[in-house]
Amino acid sequence: MLNFLGLKLFYFAIITTIIVGIIFTIKSLFIPLLIALFIAMILRPLVIFFESKGFSQTSIITSIFLSFFALVIFGFTILIPTLSEQIALFSTKVPEITIILEAKFELIQHSLETKFPSLEVSKFTKDFINTFVNNLDGSKYFSNAMSILTFSMLVPFFAFFLLKDMHLIKKTLLSYIPNRYFEISAILFYKIGTSIQLYIRGQIIDASFVGIMTGIGLSIVGFPFALIVGLVAGIGNFVPYFGPILGAIPAILIILITPEWATSSGIGMVVGVFLFVQVIETLFVYPAAVGNSVNLHPLIVVLALLIGGELAGILGMIVMIPTVAIIKVTFELLHKYMMAYRIIG
Amino acid sequence: MQVNTIWDNFFTKNNNESTIDFLKSIDIFSDLKIREIKRLERTLHKRIYKASEVIFNEGDPGAALYILKSGEVDIVIKNTSSAPIYLTKLTSGMFFGEIALFDEIPRSATVIASKECEIIALSKPDFILFSKKEPAIGMKIIMRLGKILSARLIATNKQIEELKSNNA
Lengths: 345, 168
Prior knowledge:
Chain A has ten helices and no strands. By secondary structure, chain A is an all-alpha fold.
């Protein structure tokens, strides 16, 4: 019995090592594939809806993708110029932010070094500022032409075929499952898929609400770079617990470099917008869109952020949170149904 | 045991004519047109069970309807104090586990292959998805299943009445 368990653990360890190895080796493919899977899962109900109205699957998927590209082009012509203008302008402010940050850190450093002379605070603060400022320059995320090309080609390509042949992939996988596990596998595929679909859809609705409302709110009060702040607040919202803090970083930096906003009334207006959006989101949007289905422990969130960052930088950090949520849902359902089918005692 | 290889699933039209004809002869699908059965066939799973292999166990959550294409199965109820109680034998063309399409309630009996069987399975998730995509076909199947289950209920009620009158 022990040998059998040992052998199982040995195989599990080998398979896990291989999977992790593959992920690290082909991480440039892994992230687009994961995003494509998310897109396919979000769009699937739409395809099913139109199929029920008598349209063919291929024509629906093609139409969805053509509409998406039309929307992207429309976005590029209307929204993106303003946004990229703001990003470009923000990038020019980076040296100014660096000087201000260095001055602030020097003050902290000085007081720390007088209190704790043995600490090498100066090296730490220099490294921190360098890393932070490097990450600030938004243009750097778009500088790698190859990665943009890979993303813009691979994500729609994977998403198209995942959407079109999802049932075929599932059917093929099920055909390899031993008879004993056929029913539990069929149920798990469905339940896990549905849970993930609802979770991702909910997160996107929630993040879009935060992003759009923050952008609009800050634009109304006349805050500079409102669109960038809204965009970051929306993306940051994917990260539980730390999302609001991450989302507020650009606003804090802008206040630091804009004297007219570094007043109590200016700060009050920005805090007011953030608070208003967060209260509405916490009380009404999040419970309705996401619910309490996936609660991640703060420690897990930090670990996921570190692994995601190691794998694929900022994008990896954003994608890793829903991935961990998916893994959690999968294990919970797996455990529930393995108990129900008496596979585990 | 898998019937189709990965390449069969990806590169061949899987609408096997004999399977379509076979499905048309099954009571639950008798209201469907050939083109409707062809659509449904894409969601079905073909599986092979060896003699003595358990198809599902009493008490397991129900997740699929099974149609016996070839071979035979025994339906038994497990008894903790004595040997399993044999209920009946099903042969080619018969189906079982249909309640699973409506509810996840535990299976009321164990089904064991008494000979090697070729079985066509329709899982509940696939049926739900198929009915969303093809509501008209899904409705035909549900209506047909409703009729079959009502007929079985009436027959069971008659049997109970007969048993009661015999005991009185």
